[in-house]
Amino acid sequence: MENFILTISFLLIGLLLQRLPQLPQDAAQTLNLFVIYVSLPALVLLKVPQLEFSRELLVPALMPWGMLAVSALAVLLLARALAWSREITGTLLLLVPLGNTSFLGIPMVNAFFGEEGIPYALIYDQFGSFLALATYGSLVVAIYGSQGEKPSWRTVARKIATFPPFLALILALALALGPDPAAIPAPVTALLASLAATLVPVVMIAVGLQLSLRLNREVLAPMGLGLAIKLCLAPLLALLAVQALGLEGLAARVAVFEAGMPPMVSAGALAVVAGLSPKLTAAMVGLGILLSFVTLPLLFQLL
């Protein structure tokens, strides 16, 4: 509970900072870049080598792809039944399957499961959500987008290969699979721990700085259905799946919890750049984050 209160407090600080005229307009983006290039890679290098490799790691690695398939199918069926426009359909195909499993997911996993759950959240995010954003997200933009160049597979591969947290994950896995996973010198470990500790406050303050709630009647129905799938249906299906397969342990619980994260902020930015529905995007991302502070504690009680 203490970690959860701290997480909300950081979010509120970000909301209050929105009112400061002295704060640069790109402050949130600067904080996000710090997280991508410093905090998250440090956390990956610190936590992943501590993993004990077993079959249970397949759960957080494969769960996001199962959730993507189910969520995308649900959106396509609803789009056909309700005759949604291409812009609405494309927006929901980005924001419903892709969850905020890094910027919001890692702080929330830390708040509810403690540091022991973070490595599994990192696996879920890097092998699932991030790769899905780069591959599936690019495919959706190519099909439904109206702006920007159509991404080639070479461009997608280059983005993946140069993404700092992903590079850190490859290095961390190499260390974990090496003869001595604890071979990182103590001063380096101390440095990584200090940098990794900045992730939760910096991320949540940045989320607070960017949080906006813009509801529009035109998007109420698709927004409501999209968030119902993302915050309720997807995690419940994930929970039923792990129970049906007899999967237990922290890895399975974290994977189900991550499946209930609200829409990914980066996917929202991609939707806007692609010329999809900006009103629906803003409403899905903003309201999704707010509602997740209610749905995630409820989901945790089911685990």
Automatic annotation (TrEMBL):
In the bilayer, the protein is annotated as: Multi-pass membrane protein
Protein's UniProt keywords contain Cell membrane: yes
Looking at the keywords, is Metal-binding present? no
Q: Which UniProt keywords apply?
A: Cell membrane, Membrane, Transmembrane, Transmembrane helix, Transport
Q: Where are the transmembrane segments?
A: 29-46, 58-82, 88-109, 121-144, 156-178, 190-213, 219-242, 280-300
Q: Which domain of life is it from?
A: Bacteria
Gene Ontology biological process terms in this record: transmembrane transport
Which sequence ranges form a coiled-coil region, renumbered to this chain?
Answer: none
What coarse category fits the chief subcellular location reported for this protein? membrane
Q: Which GO terms describe its cellular component?
A: plasma membrane
One Pfam family here:
Mem_trans
Where it sits in the cell: the answer is: Cell membrane
Q: To which protein family does this belong?
A: Belongs to the auxin efflux carrier (TC 2.A.69) family.
The protein, known as = Auxin Efflux Carrier
